[in-house]
Design a protein that fits this description.
There is one protein chain. The protein is of the alpha+beta class. It has 1 helix and 5 strands; from the N terminus they run E-E-E-E-E-H. It has a domain of 28 residues. The strands form 2 sheets. It has a 3-stranded antiparallel β-sheet with strand order 4-3-5, with no helix packed on it. The chain has a two-stranded antiparallel ribbon with strand order 1-2. The radius of gyration is 20 Å and the shape is extended.
């Protein structure tokens, strides 16, 4: 069980500190191991958080939430970013 308000792991359905209801799942973070070149999913309360389980080296934080970007949405996002960048370049550089 996890208290979202206090960010602590508990065994009870109510937080002993703030009294709010707890949730079943423990939040996770996604880190990246530069040595192994793989993403690693770890629980926030994990003792060896931030250490790669394969090579034992320190990892870089990526995100707490990774969602897929589908082709159509990715193309739209790419177009918007490029168009926005071109507008900035035109206004700042006179292109």
């Amino acid at each position: 069980m996890w208290c979202r308000n206090c960010n602590i792991e508990l065994k009870d359905k109510k937080c002993l500190i703030c009294g709010r209801d707890t949730v079943e799942d423990v939040p996770v973070e996604i880190d990246w191991c530069c040595n192994c070149q793989v993403p690693v999913l770890q629980e926030i309360s994990q003792a060896d958080k931030g250490i790669c389980p394969r090579c034992g080296r320190k990892m870089k934080y990526m995100s707490a939430d990774i969602r897929p970007v589908f082709l159509k949405r990715g193309c739209c996002l790419r177009y918007c970013l490029v168009a926005g960048l071109m507008n900035v370049l035109k206004s700042r550089c006179g292109l």
